[in-house]
Structures are given as C-alpha cells and as structure tokens.
Amino acid sequence: MIHVDRRALEGLDIETVRGDVLDPASLDKAFEGADTVFHLAASISLSDNRKMKMVNAVGTKNVVEACLRKRVGRMVHFSSIHAVAYSAGRDLIDESSPLVASLDCSDYGRSKAGAEDQVRRGLVGGLSTIIVRPTAMLGPHDYQPSFFGQVLLALARGKLPALIAGGFDWADVRDVVEGAIRAEETAPPGAEYLLSGHWATLRDIAEMVGGITNSRVPKLTCPLWLAGLAAPLATCFDRMTGRRPLFTSFSIDTIRKSERVSHQRASAELGYQPRPLQSSIEDTLKWFSDNGRLRKVGSPGRPQ
Fold this sequence. Notes:
Layout: H1 24-31, E1 36-39, H2 49-69, E2 74-78, E3 92-93, H3 107-124, E4 128-134, E5 136-138, H4 147-156, E6 162-164, E7 167-172, H5 173-186, E8 192-195, E9 198-201, H6 202-213, E10 220-222, H7 224-240, H8 249-256, E11 260-261, H9 264-270, H10 277-290
Parallel strand pairs: 1-2, 2-4, 3-11, 4-8, 5-7, 6-10
Antiparallel strand pairs: 7-9
C-alpha cells in the first residue's frame, strides 16, 4: 500500500494500491484477500506532534480494525525501540522492559507505545499479531534519505564540523526485515521481539566512514549538555534556511541513552543475527555512491 513515495518499489513484480492509514475505506480496499499485513506506516515529526500521534496511534487502530473486518490471518506491527522506557540503573533493555508512559519521554515514543496498545487490543479481538521493535536503522535503498542517512552523507562529504558525544544501537534494515519475515512465519500470536544491532558512538561511526571514503573525520566532539542547549537554535536555523535538521533535541536525547539493547530472544527464536556495523555502513555508502549521492566510494578526492 503506497501513501506518497513509491521509489523503493519501482521495478518489483508486485501489485500496489494507494492508501492512507487515516482513511479506513482505503485500508479495506488494500487488505481485501490479504493473508498477512506488515504494518510499517508511521510518522516521525519534528513540528507536527498532533499529526504524528494521529498517524501512529489512530492509524494503527484503523489498521487493526480493518484486519479484523477483512479477516486477515496475521499482522506484524513495526513498533520502535523508542516505545520502550529507559530505566536508571538498568544497563540492558529486553522484552521485559516496560513501555514509556511518562511525560518526560518523547512524543514519538508515547505515540508508538499507544500504537502497541491498539495492537494488543486486536490480539484480544482474535487477530494474530506480532510486534517487532527495531533500533535505529541504516542500510541501502535510503531514498529520502533518512535522518541517519543524512548524517552518513554529511560525514562522507566532510561537511560535519563536529561530533556529539554519545551513541546508540544501530541495526541494518535488511536484518530487521529478515527478522520480521521470520517472525511472521514462525512466531506465536502475541510475540514481541527487539531487533537490535550493535551499539556504537558517533565517533566510532565517523571513523568507519572516514576509513571507507577517505573523508575528513571531525576532530571536535561536543559534550551532550552543550549540544542539548544548542539544538533548539540549530533546528530553528535549519528550518529558516529550508534544510532538514540533522541534530534535534529528540536525536540528542536519544544518543544520551547508554543502555544496550538485547536481541537474545530474536536470535534464539528467529535465528536473528545482525551483520557487522562496518558492513552496513559500507553497503549504505556504496548505495549512495551508486545512486549519485556521493563520489565513487574508495576513489581519491573528497566525496561530493
């Protein structure tokens, strides 16, 4: 089901239908005769929280209800690691970790937790549901590009003046997709899985990018407290100049978290094995290069 952008599906032997998760009639049309629905539609907004909550929570409610009306056999819901609460003093997140609820958490995290509530209501209503929660994703076929894709491009072009202290768990989108497909094939109704990858700092990533592209690695690392103070001003400036913000209050709060994310359950039950982060970054940059976003990866000179 296509909302706006279909570039990632061009050339595939598939049937498509236009739809919107906020339009139940379009969902009925899209789900007619479907055996399984993979629900990936979501909004990550920096300015329109109302729309984000509508798409993520109400949209998921509409998807669940359409699945029940059309007697869809199985639904795999893509949630997010941001739906999970970070607990002080706990250094590992797994499927036993609670969902976010506090107003101290991000609007995006609360909207994704609310979406999970709708999925569980569908399970009670007789829909065989599965929830997967990826961490931060990267990988080829990043058409927009994503927020993290922008960071990789900026690093590869040598246009990021400084890094921010902190890190996060990064997962290859291909591994996440494989995990979701395996969950659809084998997991029991109501199962939940964290699909994580590898924890790394932004400096770790910058060093990898520099080694792959021969680009300049920023020497300066900005402390988190200073980045947090500057983020609202930087975001405002980027909007005024028509640029998509790279580092926002939300992204800085995200990399402030130090907890590791366990994929032990997914590995044991689904055979989930994330590939090395270095390989993911290499493949992503090669895809950008092959699609005209960068000078040939590995060629001399600074990528453009």
